[in-house]
Amino acid sequence: MFCRNQTARATIARGSALEMEIRRGKFRQSVFMETPQDSDIQKKIDYEIRMREGACKLLAACSQRDQALEASKSLLTCNARIMAYMSELQRMKEAQVMQRVARRSSDAGPMDDRSPCKGKVAISDLRIPLMWKDTDYFKNKGELHRCAVFCLLQLGGEIFDTDMVMVDRTLTDICFDNTIVFNEAGPGFELRVELYSCCSEEDYSAGSTPRKLASKLSSSLGRSAGKKMRAALEPGACSATSNGGGATILLPVPSVQGPKYHLLAHTTLSLSHVQDSFRTHDLTITGNEECSYWLPLYGGVCCRLAAQPHCMTQQMMSGCLRVKLGGEPQGWTNVYGVLKGTNLFCYHQKEDMEAKVEPVLTIGINKETRIRAAEKDPHSKAQNICITNQYGGEEVTHTLAADSREDTQRWMEAFWQQFFDMSQWRQCCDDLMKIELPSPRKPAIVTPKQGSLYHEMVIDKSDDIGTVTDILARRIEEFELRAQLGSPPHWMALFDEDPPHTPQHLPPHSPSPRLHSRQPRSPRCQRTPGLLSSNASLTSDSDSPASVSPCFRQAWSPVASSSSGRFRPRTLSLDAKLSTLRGRGYNGFRCNCQPPTASSVSPRPTQTALSCSSSTSSSSSSEGSNSQESDLGFSRPSGARRSLRILRAKLDPRNWLQSQV
Amino acid sequence: MSFIPGQPVSAVVQRIEIHKLYEGDNLILGFSIGGGIDQDPTQNPFSEDKTDKGIYVTRVSKGGPAEVAGLRLGDKIMQVNGWDMTMVTHDQARKKLTKKNEDVVRLLVTRKSLEETVRQSMMQH
């Protein structure tokens, strides 16, 4: 137990209960003597304590917010690591004591239970979606509420943290690009993922920028600002769990100034969550909206959790074997067998394996394989090993033999261990999952603050009827100019339909109530009054561009002298038309069996001018939009406003579209 | 109505023939649909399997042609006039139902109660 040349000491804090007990002679200090593994952990603890001291000093010294956040993050990680090591140390000491007790009672038989192999577990591409209210996206009022977040990942005794990400409402997801690999994980591992966040608004940190604070206090605080202030001033008010709360008795926790992270959400992943692709897991969210560090989380975390058990990546057993190849009873071939992953590779010689030559024979060893030791072969000393697999529908049996009985035993043992590992690691043993080792850190590229997807989309907010009218009036004036110049715009080619078609498209009902603005003009146009009336009808069918064209064509006809005169009154009628349309819109939106019914709501003559080529294509989109709007109860006819609403509704992932048919 | 990957999908279906009705100058069927492969399937209140991206009936208007023909709330539409509805986007589904030159739509719908009815009647024999 004693080792004279090793300075072993147990760290016992002064004034602690343990020290008192030792002083009283209740325990010999040697009971707490460290074993070599203990000193390992002790070194780690010492290292982490030094790191923590450094982080505290940095935190006290730094002036910039970013540095303070980073330092606070490393402080939190160091604390977590120290706690983990301490508890590990505790567990080991307890285990030692238990072992000594067991040895003393000396009735513990040989431990026969198998332990599964360890493996590597890697978690990468963490993404946590956020769920901002749509008012946050589209109305950019107010200060940007920013939070600094990072993830702490703990498996067994290993703790890693991701990089820190600043989150504000321009981000739709929190993405962590790090790949974290845990090296020694058992199949029953529990990977705890914790999301910490810290509010990043200067006003609420203690002591920094008192000016802003003073100015805020001098003017009256609003309700929400006051709440935040109160929350910030009461440190423990809204943090549900705080890592610093569970400080160990043996080490004093230094109290630090500066930004403090709070636990926002956590989840625990285990073997059942391991998959070779991305999966979404639920998050348990601590904290509520009142807290300063709150972020509206959607409630899930998406990541790729992969595991590589050692039985899949390392050689579990290797040695010389004899394999019966071919049909002859005595056809034994000497091979060098290597058991790795789900296969037993048989090479001619050991050097072949090192040279990566193709194996002579590959026998699959997986969940469906059956291995048994055969009857003693009269010709050989040892038992044969029969490996049976199912390839397709048929059974294939390979017979192997080792050189001696001990070898046979060792091979069987290896096979049993392999089967046990496979049963423990389950889906990880079907195929080798790829784990990319994190590449050496590239210097962080500071990208300028990007707008979110929503900011990139320019939605024209011209949902004012006056704006629309202005646009249309401008267009009409353009036509006027063109008419005087005498060259039709290039899109007129789309309207080259035969006039005789249009009379057939006269709608069954009379459009008269809407034509009051038009009628004064019809007598002027002597040629095709019928066409004009069909033209003005707004419930015409999809060939409505054709119906419009005669009117335009008449503009180019020899009656052109009156064209300029005719165009001007149209501007007024446009307004009138739009107002009648708005009134009529409630009825026109019932269904969209006739698509142009819906799309006809926009002013027809110049609508075609504006977007003639897209009239048919937009009819499909307006169909969808209208049906949706009928359900939502909106019926504003203005094209721009409608498109804005459609876009908003379609972009919102929380909407589940319903259409009336 | 849930599916096992790798196995053919089978369901007990009912044929429903809806005659469209003229309302004003529009043809309506009198129900609303939800779902589609471009929609979020977890928000479907009627589906058993929350990954089912099929088209479901979310509202049936009282006395309308759909109700008269036997369509019920929560039905999953499998086919419309021979067109498949199990792997379509929401807009595609709506279009197949609202073709203006057809005034009858023949749907194949399925619902949980159908399967149970069939199972019970089979058990009785």
Automatic annotation (TrEMBL), chain A:
GO biological process entries: actomyosin contractile ring assembly; mitotic cytokinesis; septin ring organization; signal transduction
Pro residues bias spans: 501-511
Keyword flag rRNA-binding: no
Transmembrane segments: none
Residues in coiled coil: none
Domain REM-1: residue ranges: 17-98
Gene3D superfamilies: Pleckstrin-homology domain (PH domain)/Phosphotyrosine-binding domain (PTB)
Gene Ontology cellular component list: actomyosin contractile ring
Compositionally biased intervals (Polar residues): 596-610
Keyword list, A-Z: Coiled coil
Chain spans, region Disordered: 492-549, 596-639
One Pfam family, short name: Anillin
Record flagged with keyword rRNA-binding: no
Domain PH: 314-420
Compositionally biased region (Low complexity): 531-544, 611-630
InterPro entries in the cross-refs: AHD, Cytokinesis/Rho-signaling, HR1_rho-bd, PH-like_dom_sf, PH_domain
Protein name, as recorded: Rhotekin isoform X1
Organism of this sequence: Carassius auratus
TrEMBL record, chain B:
Residue span, PDZ domain: 15-112
Primary location class: membrane
Membrane topology, from the record: Peripheral membrane protein
InterPro entries linked: PDZ, PDZ_sf, Synaptic_Scaffolding_LAP-MAGUK, Tax1-binding_p3
SUPFAM superfamilies: PDZ domain-like (SSF50156)
GO biological process annotation, one example: neurotransmitter receptor transport, endosome to postsynaptic membrane
GO molecular function, one term: protein kinase binding
GO CC terms, sorted: adherens junction; basolateral plasma membrane; cytoplasm; nucleus; postsynaptic density; postsynaptic membrane
Pfam families, per database record: PDZ
Domain of life per record: Eukaryota
Record's keyword terms, sorted: Acetylation, Cell membrane, Cytoplasm, Membrane, Nucleus, Phosphoprotein, Wnt signaling pathway
Compartment(s): Cell membrane; Cytoplasm; Nucleus
Function: May regulate a number of protein-protein interactions by competing for PDZ domain binding sites.
Protein name as catalogued: Tax1-binding protein 3
Native organism: Carassius auratus (Goldfish)
